[in-house]
Write a structure and sequence with these properties.
The protein contains 3 helices and 6 strands, in the order βαββαβαββ. By secondary structure, it is of the alpha+beta class. The chain folds into 2 domains: 2-68; 71-105, no CATH class. Strands 2-3-1-4 form a 4-stranded antiparallel beta sheet. A hairpin with a 3-residue loop joins strand 2 and strand 3 (30-36). Residues 99-119 have low confidence and may be disordered. Residues 84-119 are annotated as: Disordered.
Length: 119
């Protein structure tokens, strides 16, 4: 699994507290920064956020963690989840799409068929 975190930071704050080449501008007033979750600069941004909050403000206005799984990881999750589902349901099948969304095929009907695949 590869994890990154995306921040949106006001350009004036980014210029004042971060390296000038970190991230990409989104217009004139906002900067988008995407870093590996393990990057030491994530901790620096976290520290800046805490300092700004103590003063009643914020450093970043948006954050989102992105996770990307390899094909091997998705297949392992399918096998593992399928085995657990089989134990829990007595033989139903579970599969994952490439996007990581699960769809279920069972031997009986669902009360809510949304996002489900029936045999």
């Amino acid at each position: 699994m590869h994890e990154t975190i995306e921040f949106r930071i006001a350009e004036d704050r980014a210029r004042k507290f971060l390296e000038p080449d970190l991230g990409v501008p989104l217009g004139e007033s906002l900067r988008k920064i995407v870093l590996p979750l393990s990057d030491k600069r994530v901790q620096r941004i976290k520290q800046l956020e805490q300092e700004h909050r103590r003063k009643g403000g914020v450093f970043f206005t948006y954050w989102h963690i992105h996770r990307r799984y390899s094909e091997k990881e998705l297949q392992a999750a399918e096998v593992s989840n399928g085995q657990a589902w089989n134990r829990a349901t007595g033989g139903s099948r579970t599969s994952f799409s490439a996007s990581g969304e699960a769809s279920y095929a069972q031997n009986h009907s669902f009360s809510s068929p949304r996002n489900c695949v029936q045999p």
